[in-house]
Each structure stands twice: as structure tokens, then as C-alpha cells.
Amino acid sequence: MSFDVDLHRHTIRLPGRLRGDRPLDMSVVDAGPHSGVRDGAPTMVFIHGFGGRAAYWEHQLEQFHDDYRVIALDLRGHGYTDAPDEEDGARYDVPELVADIEAALDVLGVPERFILVCHSFGGALSSYFIHKHPQRVSALVIIASAVTFRLRLAGRMLLRVPPAILTWVRRMLPLVGVDAARLYPPAHVVYLQNRNALVGWDGTAFLRAVRAPTLVILGQRDILFSDASYKEVARLVPGAEQVVIPVSAHQVMVERPDAVNRAILRFLQSQGDPAAVAEFKARQKALRRAARRTLEAERPWLKFYDARTPYRIRPPAAPLPRLLEATARRFARTAAIDYAGGTLDWRSLDRLANRFAQGMLALGIRPGDRIVLALPNIPHFLIAYFGVQKAGGVAVLSEDGASVDLLLDRIAAHDAAMLVATSDRLDALRDPLATDVRARSARHVVLAAPIDYLGWKERLRFALFRHVQQGYWLPWFRLGERQRRHERRFLRFGQVLGMGAPLPPAVPVGLDDIAVIAHTFGATGPAKAVPLTHRQLASNALQLRHWLPEARPGDERFLAQQPFWTAYGLSGLVHLGMYLGATLCLVPEQDIPLLLRTVRRVRPTYFPTTPRVVRQLAHAPGVRRYGLASIRICAVSGSPLAQEVREEFEKITRGRLIEAYGLTEATAAVAAMPLSARRPSGVVGLPLPDTEVRIVDLDTGGDAAPDALGELLVRGPQVYTASAEVPGPTSSAGRPHDGWLRTGDVASMDEDGFLTIIDRKANMVMRDGVRVFPRQIEEVLFEHPAVADVQVRRIAEGDAAVRLEARVLLHRNMDIPVEELFGYCAKRLQPGALPDSIALEQEQAPRMA
């Protein structure tokens, strides 16, 4: 199946649907024709039955989404929609459920006339809706529904089981491999809807009043309700057509999807003049083809996409906190974090983020305040990050090992109200925060101890060897008595959590609000701040989700060594993991032995990393015994990867290594190699969905010819905009103009749209009228069998002189004179491109566990 329900799912908020005028969050699947033809397409709305969910309609959604806008709802208490109880004022009766449907149609902007498709008890809801709104439904399809819903004896006995016992059974089902939280509604929903809706329902009068053209589809072997009650539906609805699908039972649209789709298609075509219907379909098909051809002409790389990857993405419908809440409902019991044996599921992560947000608000943090996060990849980062966003704040990302001076600069530049750091920084921060004027705005410092969420074995080991010895210990007398005026700034992470309730704060967060201030690496100058909005961050994560069509929601394990404080780690791990309900297996240190031990323990499936780490893994002693073969996909970004290293790594993992290109100003990801495309040597891949790229001549600024070098320009929904500026040292050199971001990277693009990244424009050296790039030298040196790694740096001397210095790391137990390397380069590079100096180092064997 090429249609993925989860990629078209989002959460909408229905105002005033709960007691106290509180909103109800409803999960919906909303898909349709490509942009340009969707507005004129008719709409189909799908309503599931008692105990069902929107995903039951996946075959029908796939069939009709090319010609119709298709909407499937998870009703109250079902699927991923909220399940309020009687204390919230919920009754789960027909008027209440239909009122939810009415509110959802308003929020989604469904047109006045639409086609309604329903299953089982959804037929009761649909007939009641038509009774209230007879002019809104242009055609009705009723599948496996009945006039009354009197179950047979076994079903009636099951529904009489007390809710407490059903709840216990529901909790036990995951132990035998059934994720009941994703398949079945909670016990209180079953009890209330059965009592208030099913038992007393008689649809005779409502069905007789239906005037819309109606198709009734039944399963030949459906025995859930009485045969007479099924057949009475078609008799009561005036002019209804009945179709019985052989070899199928109650879930007929799942068991015989093709037969059901054919019946619906024939019925819809019969509602109009056959010639007009055929003309409409031909027109829609022609529009789609024309739009596709136009887009492919503008973006030749599209024809190399995986067939399951769309050309365009659906714009995000909710900010990041709402996406987290949706994930917490969909994957409630799926582990979100695995931290050295300690785990937190998505529901727990969401609740801890709520508590942190509430605690921040109790401390006087206001929406819009900047919060500096200087944490490694530990659970505290994710709790604080999402907590900041739920409180309406802005997360300012900083290296976990940043110097005190850099942290003070970041606090001053962004007027930050709070700093969150690890507890071992207390002694270093205590005096500067009291005396340095740059810390004036920081009213609170929250200290996180890594021991908090470790598994019991690692917790014991950490307590014995690191907790006190390395300064993570925070007893009362360390935070305590002296310098009382400013010491009150310091709080334990747990203290902030203790101030808040596990409920989301009532703080409005908009899609175009700034969510994150990330910083560039400063490779060619001072690091600059880049403001990124919820829309840009969610868009980039959605692009990556589409780029990995084979990903398995709820069943992926991400190896999270790439720091979360980088845009690459944030988008490629945190946000993508949130879309997939993946488990983030945290590796807080850049340590190869720790990384390999984590691989052996968790068996990760996806690993975003850098070329340097790939090279280290490929040459680590005994690497095969750690089980890297579990990694199906390894995404590498940062610099080109040598073909030899790629082949070695793929042989070790038996998975696929895909290169990618990105930058902080584009929320991390711009281009990547498709999983199913051919892989030309040296290229980093194709632009992601909805992303445009241009190569402009370095001298004239006009569009460069295919394969010619030029500066890379990028435009897309993930690119930061000039309107989202922040005080302080922002990234202004590449500030977008007309949506185009000047990346500062020199690249080339062939006729098919495959990108090759050469080097940073700022690294370029002119010698004898010829452009020389450090990466040219790196690629040549790396081909030498003795070289394990190489970095060539551009060093300016005086006003004009520029030197190219190569730092070469030799493989273990290998030695080679510098003169031989110079001779090796001289045979492969023109004289002006030779390095001015080469410095040699010997690779050290990592200490393996």
C-alpha cells in the first residue's frame, strides 16, 4: 500500500466540547489531490463505528484521495482522539458524538455539500446528522450498519464486564504483543457509549427521513447483529441500493477493500450524467498530469524520487507542543527515551514536559522569554525543550560543554530569563552569575543531574564513580546558605518539575512563533544565531518523514549520539522521532566505545551521524561483534564521505548509508540521497520535497550551467525567514531574499538535479587566477591508504597571504614521511592547489569494552 495514513494525520482542537468550556483534541486524517486541483475536488467524509478508528478506512482513502478530498475522523474516545470521562461531562451519546462531527467539519472547512461514508454504528451517527442537516450530504454510503444494534449473546456478555476488569485486560494485552491503547477504546468509553448510545438506539425514523442517494453495503458472513436488522436499512431508506459483498464479515471494507471500492465508485459515478462524470475525471487527471509535468520541468530531480515520496508536503497544522501531545496519544506506551537502560514512554515524556512548563510559569517565566539550554543528550534536554515550548518560550540552544564566558554571552545576547545546565557546572557558574553584568537577565538557573533517569545498573555505577567525584552531586549545602541573595537563582531540575501539574498549560502557541534559536558552527567565522519557527521545524521533520517511506511508526529505534543542541540533531532525531513515535536511544558523549555498547544493547534501526564517526566505526577493532547490522539506515551529513569508507560501513551494517546536506539556516536538512535511487559517486543527493535549489555563477550571479561550480541557493518551507529575527548576532550573511537563502556553499548540480557540495565559499583561495578549495586536497589525501582522516584549513596571514594547512591522521601502526604525501598530492593536483604544509598525527586505538 502506497498510502500511509499517519503521514496525513494531524490533530485539531474543537473548542468548548468538554465541561468548563474546555476543548477536545481530535485526530483526523485529511488528504486529497495535489495542490492546484484540490480546491475544486468534492469531499468525502468517513465515519467509523463503535470501537473503530480512522485507520480502518486506509484502503478507501488510498483509492479516492487522487480525485476527492478525503477526511476520516477518530471519534471521541477512539483511536488517537481524547477520551474524556463523566467528570469531563462526556456521555458518548449520539447527540454528543454528532456535535463533535459538526465541530470538526467546521474546523476543517468542509464545504456545504459532501459525500458521507459510514460503517456500523457510524450509520446511526450519519442518519442523525442528516436529520439535522438534510441539505449537506450529497450522497450516503452505509457499510455494515443496522437499524438497531443488539449484539448477540457473547457480545452482550462482554459489554457487561465491569470497566475495571476491562481496563486490567487492556493493560495486559501489550504483554502478549497487542498494543491495546492503539486498537481499542478505553473501558469507560466502551461502557458509556454502550449504555447511552447503542442499547437504546432505533434508527427507523431517521433512516426513513434520508433523502440523499444511498448505497448500502453488507458483508455476506456478517453475524455481529441480526440479519433482519441489516437488511432493514436498505428497505427503510427511500430508493437505496444494496450490495452484498461475498466472503466478508463485519469489517467488510478491510476484508474486501477492492470490492467495496468498486461498489462505491460505481455508485458515485451513477449519481451524475456518465459523460459529465467521465469528463470531470478526465479533467482532474489532466490537471494532475499538467501540474506534475510543470513541476518536473522546473525540478528535474523529482523523477528520481521514491514512488512513495510526494513532490510536496502537507503544511504543518499545529505547533510542536501539539505534535508532541498527538504522539503521546498515538504511542502512549511506546518508549520515547532509552537512557542507559532507563526508559520513559511518550505519555510520560509529555506529562513531564507539562510539569516543567507549569513549573516555569510558577517561577515567573513568561511566554516569549528566552531559555538557554546547555545540556547533552540526556532526558532532561527533551523534557526542558518541550516544556519551554509548552510555556510559550523560546529555546536558545548552546553546546553542553560551552565555556562559562560563552554561556554568559548567549544569556546577554538573547536577554535569557533562565539557564538550564548540568549540575557539574554549579561551581563554575556560581560567582560569574553573581558578578557579571551579562548574567543580569537570568533570574533562574536549573541544574540537571544525569543520574536521574538512568537504569538501575548504570545509576549504581554512576553513583559510585562519577556522581560526587565529578561534581554532579547537589545536596542542600552545595546550593545552600552562602551568598543568599543570588543563590536562590539555583534550582534542581526536580524542583521545577515539582512545582507543576502534568496538565498542558493554557498558553497559546502559534505556528509562526519562534520556537528555537540555534547557532551555526562558526567554521568560517563567529557562530551566529538562527531563529526558527514551529512551522519551519515541523516542515523539515515532515520532509524527512516522507524521505523515509519504509520507516515503521512506533517500531523504530534511533541511535541518538548527534547532539540535540545542533539543528541536525534536533530535526533528524527529536522531531523526526516524534513524528514516528520512535525510541531515542541516548548517547550523551562523543565516545566510540560507549556508542558501540549502546548499539549492542538496544539494536538501533536508524543512525544519523557524521562522516568522522562513520570512519571511526569502520576502523574500530572488533566492530562486527557489536551488532551494527541492526542499523537499516545510516544518514550521514557534514562533509563528503569517501567511497571506500561507505562500502566498508555498509558491509558491516548490511544496511544503507545515505548522504545528506543541510545547514542550520534551513532547519538542518536540504538534500539527501533517496533510498531507492541510483547513487552517483560524489553527490550528496536530491532536494527534499517542496525544496527548490539554484546554482548561481560565482562571478556574475546568474544561473550556472549544469555541472558548473557556483553558490548554492535554497528555498523551501524549512528555510528561516528574515521576518523571524531576534536580537543579537543573527545569521545575516545568508539572509533570505525573495525566499532564497544564500548558503555560502560552493556546489554543482547535474542535469538530473543531483547535488555535489564542493566547499564553503569562504574557504576558497585564488591562486594564479584558479579557484582552490581545501576539500579538493582532502579528497586526494584521503585516497592514500595510510591516511585515516584529514582536515585542510585556510589560514590567513597578514592582509593578503593565505596558507592551506593539512592535518593528517594516519592509520594505527602506519608511518609515512611528509615528503611522500607531498609527492602523492603533486601527482594529482595542479601546482597552485598543493597544501603549504602537512602535519602528521598517529591514530590511537579506542579503548573498547
Helix content: 25-40%
Total strands: 33
Which CATH architecture of the domain at 5-150 and 201-270 is right?
3-Layer(aba) Sandwich
First-residue to last-residue Cα separation: 44 Å
Shape field:
globular
The helix count comes to 28
SSE layout:
Elements: E1 9-18, E2 22-31, E3 43-47, H1 58-64, E4 69-73, H2 94-108, E5 114-119, H3 122-132, E6 137-143, H4 153-159, H5 163-172, H6 180-183, H7 187-198, H8 204-208, E7 214-219, H9 227-236, E8 241-245, H10 252-255, H11 257-270, H12 274-298, H13 320-330, E9 335-339, E10 342-345, H14 346-362, E11 370-374, H15 379-390, E12 394-397, H16 404-414, E13 418-422, H17 426-435, E14 444-448, H18 456-465, H19 476-479, H20 484-487, E15 490-492, H21 493-498, E16 514-519, E17 529-533, H22 534-547, E18 557-560, H23 567-580, E19 583-586, H24 592-602, E20 606-609, H25 611-618, E21 633-637, H26 643-653, E22 656-661, E23 671-672, E24 686-687, E25 692-696, E26 710-715, E27 741-749, E28 755-760, E29 765-767, E30 770-772, H27 774-782, E31 787-797, E32 801-810, H28 818-826, E33 837-842
Parallel strand pairs: 3-4, 3-5, 5-6, 6-7, 7-8, 9-19, 11-12, 11-13, 12-16, 13-14, 14-15, 18-19, 20-21, 21-22, 32-33
Antiparallel strand pairs: 1-2, 2-4, 9-10, 16-17, 22-23, 23-24, 25-26, 26-27, 27-28, 29-30, 31-32
Helix pairs in contact: 2-3, 5-7, 13-14, 13-23, 14-15, 22-23, 25-26
